[in-house]
Amino acid sequence: MLLNRRTLDGIAAGRITLVFRRWRRPSVRAGGTLLTSIGLLAIEDVEPVEEIGEDEARAAGHDTRERLLAELSSREGQLYRICLRIAGPDPRIALQAETELGEPEMHDIEARLMLLDARRAWTLATLALIEAHPARRAPELAALLGREALPFKQDVRKLKALGLTESLASGYRLSPRGAAMLRRLAPR
Length: 188
Fold this sequence. Notes:
Elements: H1 5-13, E1 18-23, E2 33-36, E3 39-48, H2 54-59, H3 65-72, E4 78-88, H4 91-97, H5 103-116, H6 123-132, H7 138-144, H8 149-161, E5 165-167, E6 172-174, H9 176-185
Antiparallel strand pairs: 1-4, 2-3, 3-4, 5-6
Helix pairs in contact: 6-9, 7-8
């Protein structure tokens, strides 16, 4: 489930506690979590609904029920009410700062990178490219590798999940953990 900046800011400030979506089937479920730029969100409840009240519209960050309904009108499917809250900081942030990794941790990361490379080797080249071009936007980096931007961004998210990269306002950079892994893996 994608959340726009306005919604994320409202959740972070405690003004937004509900989100409404039209789906053929829900893309999140109660008890799950969602990683976002403001941290980890807990999905407390996901319920199909027929109507939205004024109070619910305000809890979803809208001035009126009509404005919320207008926003949802362009989509098809069942209407769902999602109750969520901040559950904590993004766990990837703590991973990114780790540079003093023991052999078991290094082997674990290497094994995960090997799994990512199983169909085609891309992790080392992507890490090296991000190191060489910090803060460069994804479409530009993807073009340097002869790749499409969207699949490239999806791959970078996989590296971010391992704490190896950091997203910037524009582009990416290697985290200290990513730089340590690149030094270990890259032939010099």
